[in-house]
């Protein structure tokens, strides 16, 4: 019974749920603010993403008459729930490790796919042609970045597993524990290609320039999100904020869990979050333009796939 | 002019769906409506519809006196707002056989080139916005802000300069305003050079503009495109050189052409012309003669008709003016560069990707408010 309550707390309060949402909105706010400063603008206040949510909560959700209601309104809910569970699956070194009953790395990888699938559902159910284009772009981009992700995760899982005498481990807790005692994978030259490949994966997964192709505002008017308004759009924003925490949290767990305990470990983790967000998202998105979907597809099949495969090959051999 | 321009593209075949671009679309600054048949991400056919912002200005012009029409024509278009009254005044002067004082002619060139500098930077900024390069957009708009400051400091306005009048100009340069102008040019010149360098080297920009929206030279001639669109496709035509007006024959005018005919070439032509505008203004300031700037206010324009043309930032602008015994013109008609250029969009958009539609449309620098007036 108590373990079920613990899981519920993990999903709804900490480290998933409210905490992850607050952190995700904070990261988004910081991203917008820092991007603005780097571009010589004043920028919105840090709490702007939160204020946007409040505004959306008080608006109506309009459902297009040609849309499929159930899918149209169900899609954002599925997205948020999947990300709530995913956030509870990400360990924080020295602070939190997910209960084995909740799932392991494989479950997390599947959950990470859900937002993309949800956006595809949203795009196709809205019956808008822009949604349809967004759907096909989301699909192509997902296929492009999913292969490198699987190889990256495999490299880490095999590396940890082999060091512990069995072939492979999919327990994030074990991966974190191993790094706490044997040194971070970030400092291991064998894993550097995988770290770099993950650096390409997460802007694509988060939909950031140069990979914000499915939602490109000036091309397809936010694509799948075009027909959304009010609380339903707010749910997508919540999903996106949670996803930022999950993806960056996964990056930290896979390569750079700090060997600390208690409050310093928690603060260190938050600092890592912010640094990765600013370095991997903010700086990237303000220093580049958008790629076309064909360019992004070729790019992913070339560089990140090659890098991740290199790490995996070295680890296995 | 007809209210709808239809451009048949490739036969539709088994097109998957139709997407509407416009009349209200974030990537279009003005209302224009494209019906685009696409298969997946590729454009099959484009239909261009116009007529959303008809304002009845041609009719209005015949209800205003010639001098009032200077004010009216300035408000046809915001970015070419100097070229419209300029061409109108030139037509009126041709009818009356007036010669603008030399100082007035130099000042007309300065006003026109300041507008060209700001207008071209604006279009290039929008291009970077459309490829999703927000920082570059912010930067170019910041550079353009210097041109806006020049306009505000010298002419008193940031968009409509109010510089032209029949028989000359309504402003004069003194020590102070020449100082503002020179300081502004000194500031903006290296910045524009830096933007040119970025456009030549930056991967994000090259990736999305090279070999996109190609208009071959033969097609460019067949469509009769004008301005940077023509010069980007290798058509060596500039009104300022072919039919020099004011004192352009004495200016260090450089007419550049590119043979590629893609979006990048058109952007580069605009940037080069922005740089050239700076050189022309400097040369005007150096040679600026003394004397009157206009012919006074009581001008007699006899009955008659005339055509005048000028090179607006977007290309050749033609004015036809017919006067009679009254103070109002009997007929005033103009042909704007966008009217010639938007027909070529059908060719540029053929087999384009959906992602490039907005970039290609922006590359002709469409001005709908002056085309549909």
UniProtKB/TrEMBL annotation, chain A:
Its main location: membrane. It is found in: Membrane. It comes from the Bacteria. Keywords: Membrane, Quinone, Transmembrane, Transmembrane helix. InterPro entries: ComplexI_Subunit1, NADH_UbQ_OxRdtase_su1/FPO, NADH_UbQ_OxRdtase_su1_CS. GO terms for molecular function: quinone binding. The keyword Membrane applies. The chain crosses the membrane at residues 6-27, 70-96, 102-122, 143-162, 182-202, 241-260, 266-284, 296-316. GO terms for cellular component: plasma membrane. It is a multi-pass membrane protein. It holds the Pfam family NADHdh. The keyword Transferase does not apply. This is NADH-quinone oxidoreductase subunit H. It comes from Consotaella salsifontis.
From TrEMBL, chain B:
Ni(2+) binds at residues 77, 80, 367. It comes from the Bacteria. Pfam families: Complex1_49kDa (PF00346), NiFeSe_Hases (PF00374). Transmembrane segments: none annotated. GO terms for molecular function: NAD binding; nickel cation binding; oxidoreductase activity, acting on NAD(P)H; quinone binding. Mg(2+) binds at residue 58. Keywords: Iron, Magnesium, Metal-binding, Nickel, Oxidoreductase. Fe cation binds at residues 80, 370. The keyword Repressor does not apply. The keyword Metal-binding applies. InterPro entries: ComplexI_49kDa-like, NADH_Q_OxRdtase_suD, Ni-dep_hyd_lsu, NiFe-Hase_large. Residues 131-294, 299-373 form the NADH-quinone oxidoreductase subunit D domain. This is Ni,Fe-hydrogenase III large subunit. It comes from Consotaella salsifontis.
């Amino acid at each position: 019974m108590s373990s079920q309550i613990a899981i519920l707390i993990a999903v709804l309060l900490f480290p998933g749920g409210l905490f992850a949402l607050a952190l995700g909105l904070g990261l988004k706010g910081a991203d917008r603010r820092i991007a603005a400063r780097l571009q010589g603008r004043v920028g919105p206040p840090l709490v702007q993403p939160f204020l946007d949510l409040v505004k959306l909560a008080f608006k109506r959700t309009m459902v297009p008459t040609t849309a499929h209601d159930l899918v149209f309104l169900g899609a954002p809910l599925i997205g948020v729930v999947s990300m709530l569970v995913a956030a509870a699956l990400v360990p924080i070194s020295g602070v939190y490790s997910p209960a084995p009953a909740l799932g392991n790395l494989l479950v997390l990888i599947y959950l990470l796919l859900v937002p993309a699938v949800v956006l595809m559902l949203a795009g196709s159910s809205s019956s808008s042609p822009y949604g349809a284009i967004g759907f096909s772009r989301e699909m192509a981009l997902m296929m492009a970045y999913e292969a490198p992700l699987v190889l990256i995760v495999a490299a880490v899982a095999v590396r940890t597993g082999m060091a512990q005498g069995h072939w492979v481990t999919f327990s994030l807790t074990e991966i974190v524990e191993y790094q706490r005692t044997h040194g971070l994978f970030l400092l291991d030259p064998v894993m550097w290609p995988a770290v770099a490949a993950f650096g390409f994966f997460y802007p694509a997964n988060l939909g950031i320039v140069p990979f914000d192709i499915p939602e490109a505002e000036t091309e397809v008017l936010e694509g799948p999100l075009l027909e959304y308004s009010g609380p339903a759009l707010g749910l997508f924003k919540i999903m996106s904020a949670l996803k930022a925490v999950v993806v960056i949290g996964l990056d930290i767990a896979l390569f750079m869990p700090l060997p600390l305990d208690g409050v310093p470990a928690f603060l260190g983790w938050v600092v890592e979050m912010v640094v990765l967000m600013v370095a991997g998202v903010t700086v990237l998105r303000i220093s580049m333009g958008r790629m076309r979907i064909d360019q992004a597809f070729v790019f992913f099949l070339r560089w990140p796939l090659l890098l991740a495969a290199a790490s995996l090959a070295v680890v296995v051999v | 002019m007809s209210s709808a321009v239809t451009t048949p593209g490739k036969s539709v075949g088994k097109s998957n769906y139709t997407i509407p671009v416009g009349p209200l679309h974030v990537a279009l600054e003005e209302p224009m409506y494209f019906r685009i048949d696409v298969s997946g991400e590729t454009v099959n056919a484009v239909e261009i519809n116009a007529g959303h912002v008809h304002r009845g200005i041609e009719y209005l012009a015949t209800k205003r006196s010639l001098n009032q029409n200077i004010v009216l024509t300035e408000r046809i278009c915001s970015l070419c707002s100097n070229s419209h009254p300029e061409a109108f005044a030139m037509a009126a002067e041709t009818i009356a056989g007036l010669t603008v004082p030399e100082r007035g002619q130099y000042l007309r060139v300065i006003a026109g080139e300041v507008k060209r500098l700001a207008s071209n930077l604006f279009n290039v900024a929008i291009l970077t916005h459309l490829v999703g390069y927000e920082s570059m957009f912010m930067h170019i708009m910041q550079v353009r802000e210097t041109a806006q400051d020049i306009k505000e400091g010298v002419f008193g306005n940031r968009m409509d300069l109010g510089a032209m009048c029949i028989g000359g100009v309504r402003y004069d340069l003194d020590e102070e305003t020449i100082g503002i102008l020179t300081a502004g040019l000194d500031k903006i010149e290296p910045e524009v050079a830096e933007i040119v360098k970025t456009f030549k080297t930056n991967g994000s920009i090259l990736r999305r503009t090279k070999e996109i929206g190609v208009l071959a030279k033969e097609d460019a001639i067949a469509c009769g495109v004008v301005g940077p669109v023509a010069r980007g496709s290798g058509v060596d035509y500039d009104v300022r050189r072919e039919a020099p007006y004011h004192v352009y024959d004495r200016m260090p005018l450089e007419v550049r052409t590119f043979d590629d005919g893609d979006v990048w070439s058109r952007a580069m032509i605009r940037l080069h012309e922005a740089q050239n505008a700076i050189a022309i203004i400097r040369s005007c300031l150096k040679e600026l003669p003394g004397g009157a700037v206009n012919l006074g206010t009581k001008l007699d324009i006899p009955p008659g008709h005339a055509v005048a043309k000028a090179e607006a930032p977007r290309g050749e602008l033609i004015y036809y003016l017919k006067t009679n015994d009254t103070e109002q013109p009997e007929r005033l008609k103009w042909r704007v560069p966008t009217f010639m250029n938007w027909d070529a969009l059908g060719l540029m958009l053929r087999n384009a990707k959906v992602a490039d539609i907005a970039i290609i449309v922006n590359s002709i620098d469409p001005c709908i408010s002056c085309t549909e007036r």
